[in-house]
Amino acid sequence: MDPFTVHGNYGVLAIDRPHVINTSYSYSLGRVLPTGNKILSSAANGWNISGTTTWQAGGNLQAINNNQQNLGMTIYDSAKGENVTTLSYYGTEAGNIQPVLTCDPKKGFTVSHQELNPLCFAPPALHSYGPRQYKYLGGPSYFNSDLTIFKTFQVHGKQKVEFRASMFNFLNHALREYSTTSQITPTFSTTDRAKFTSTLVQNLSSALKPYLGAPDTKDGYRLGELSVKYIF
Asked: What's the DSSP call for residue 83?
C-alpha cells in the first residue's frame, strides 16, 4: 500500500470490528397449563425457546473500500483531459495520492444515518503527502437476532417426534448498506494542478445526492423455518 515507508503499510484490516456483542440464551417454558386435560397440557407444556443475538460495530470504511487508503480519490485535470496520478505528484507511478483532512469526517453530519463526510477530504499540495491512516472511519453497524421454539413429544418407547419452529432475523431488522462507494469517494477537478474543486456532489446521480456519505439501501428480511423430526 505504501511504497515509501514500511510503517505506512500497517493499519486497520477490513475484517476489523472494534466492538462485538454476541449473546445466546435457552429457556424452558415448563408447565404452562395444569395437567387436568392431557391433550391440552401435552400440547402446551414442555416447550423450549432458544436464540442468538449479535451486534457489531461497522468496519473501517478506509479498509473496506477495496482496501484503498485514499478512499479511491480521483483528481481530474480538465486542462489536459486526464486524471492526475502519482507521477505528477511524486515522479513515480507507485502508491497513491493521499488526501488531507480539512475537518473531522465523523462530525457535522447533515443527512440521516450519515457515516462519513467525504467533503472533509482534499488533495494535498503537489509533492506533499496526506496521512496514510485517519481516525477510525466506521461504517454501518450489524445487528441480527434468531429465535427457535421446539418441543419433543414422546410417542412410544424410544420413538419421539420433535417439532421445531425457527425464525431468522425474527425482528425483521434491515441492515443499511451503500449501493455504490461513489457516495464516499472524494472526487476533484483542477485546471492548474494547484487549485482543486470538489466534484463529488455534482458527480452523484440525483437519486444518490441526498445520501452523501450515508447508506442508501437496506438489506435483510425475516425468514421462517418449520421442521419435524421423527426419532426411533
From this structure: E
